[in-house]
Amino acid sequence: MKRIAMVVLLVLAASVAGAQTEEELDRELLGDSASSDIQEEKNSWEINGFLRSSLQLALPFSADASEYEVVKLEGRGRLNTQYSSGTFSAKASVDAFYYPIQHFKDTFPRNRIEAAELYVAGGDRFQYKLGIQRFAWGNAEIFGVTGFFNRLDLSESLAKDPSDITRGVAALSLKYIFGELAVEAAWCPMQYPVIVPRGFWALKDHKPYETEFIYNDSVRYDMTKSSAGARVGGTMQGFDAFISYFNGYSSNVLINSTMIETGSLTAGVIGYDEVKRESSLEYMRVNSIGLEFSRVIRKVTLRYESVVTPDMGAMKKVTDDDVDSVILAMSNDASDGELASIDRVPYFAYTLGADWNIWGANGMILLEWTQGLYLRDMTDYNYPALSYLMVIFLQDSFFDKRLTVRGGTVFRPIAILPGGLLSGEVAWKFMQNCELAFRGMFFFGNDDDLFEYFKNKDVIEVRMSYLF
Q: Is residue 373 within 8 Å of 162, Cβ to Cβ?
């Protein structure tokens, strides 16, 4: 179960992938505030979106595999509308999903319509935004540690489109601008649990006993589970610097497990067929302080962000011997089946990164290093999820931006924890508004205690999109 917990926590850390910048969010907040009435009227309405079909296939791994396994067949449409008038704006971004084939009846996504963003905003020096919104706290590209508020959608695990990993939350945010600095405050009145992997990507534990994962990821409409935070910073002597505080539920969730007797255990006998393991997410309310720094030096952008959490939760290790001991005690009516306990410990994590526009405006190399530490002797606890993670990513465009090529790897560059992911994508735009993309994701290092979860999870994907 240690492996599963570490995988989930790793992916949960990817909260900043695809996030909007402060500048982009401010443009959404105030609209395109041109000085003339003509320009303001011209830009009062904006409507755009896309229609997309996706086919995702799992590669065969055995000699008798005769065909690819269909992981996902999805139709999706998005409509973005925004109205701006002076210092007031309103935005609605709505998604519709359709699945003609549902391969995993219990865990597959349902046909649905949902709002990605839905808010009103306004103001000049003092700004407000009320409704479903995404926050741009943090500056890391892949594994951010200060993206406190956004909800994480990991229903497809590492295969999730980076722009869809973060979802908006219902919140009230305020900002006061003075010169090059700004003070922000935010309040979210409910808890948004992480959407955990489903279907093909569902959590599994390859053990001699049955494992059942409890999907407790529905939104908690409970005012007592609200979150709040504040952030201050801006541009100072060429640096962008921010400090933030957050009180709420951490997205670095833990997996708690209990052994349940499903049959009739014989005293003194470890009967795997008579038990099952129930696992569910545990959300910890924490206090966190975040720091962000970034600077542009010619073609290179340097980024750093870190978080200190004095009351982070840590799960004690559970070995196969521990499970056997619990089952044996259950057979003698001396155990309630609990496998592990959670302690509060001080925690520190950081991401250090740089991107280099080496080939001009369209070409980029991204490097990021992410590390997490429990600030005490943790030999009896599971390893922090954000540990020794290196990201290398490259992207470039050709033929007047019609052909885009991107690819990279996430891996652990140390001998004791080998393993990682290779991914690549080629996208071609034609007829101005159409795009055809091919993507592949390939995992290596199956003996790694993190990436072993993705054993036999290599996939390829084909997407066709129409932009309007």
A: no
| Distance between CA atoms of residues 83 and 97, nearest Å | 25
| Tally of domains within the chain | 1
The greatest distance separating any two alpha carbons of the chain, rounded to the nearest whole angstrom, comes to 84
Kindly state the tokens that stand for 10.
């790793």
Ramachandran class of 337: left when φ > 0, alpha when ψ lies in -120 to 50, beta otherwise: left
- For 10, the 3-state DSSP assignment is helix
Is residue 468, in this structure, part of any structural domain at all? yes
Q: Is residue 82 part of a domain?
A: no
* Helix locations, 68-176, DSSP H: none
Q: Could you please report the per-residue DSSP string of 238-278?
A: TEEEEEEEEEEE-SS-EEEEEEEE-S-PPTT---GGGEEEE
Q: Are strands 210-214 and 275-282 parallel, antiparallel or unpaired?
A: parallel
Residue 434 lies in a domain: yes
Interval 392-413: pLDDT, tens: 999 999 998 899 999 999 888 8
The residues facing 285 across adjacent strands are: 249
Percent residues over pLDDT 90 in the chain:
41
